């Protein structure tokens, strides 16, 4: 039993450990950042920017934000905070 465990530990786990080490040491090439959208905006671009960040349709984010605003007002407060704190998308040159 002991020999079987050592063989499994050294043989099967080695590629996984190697892949994990490579993933940790590999530099990040693209960093995903949250911006207020310039293209998909109704008021300030908060919902459009969140949709671009999440990779979903902006209408879905807008509907969810309105529902959150109607269910106690937390959505409205979060929208205003995002409007103030989330930077606008850099202008494309």
- Give the amount of beta strand, in percent: under 5%
Shape: elongated
> What is the number of beta strands?
0
Average pLDDT for all residues: 78
- What about the largest sheet? none
Query: Rg to the nearest angstrom?
Result: 22 Å
Which terms would index this structure?
93 residues; mainly alpha; 0% strand; elongated
Give a description of the structure.
This protein is mainly alpha-helical. Helix content is 62%, strand content 0%. It has four helices and no strands. It has helices at 2-25, 46-54, 58-70, 74-85. Helix 2 crosses helix 3 and helix 3 (58-70) crosses helix 4 (74-85). The termini are far apart. The model has no long low-confidence stretch (mean pLDDT 78).
Helix and strand topology:
Blueprint: H1 2-25, H2 46-54, H3 58-70, H4 74-85
Helix pairs in contact: 2-3, 3-4
Offer a quick outline of the entry:
The chain is mostly helical.
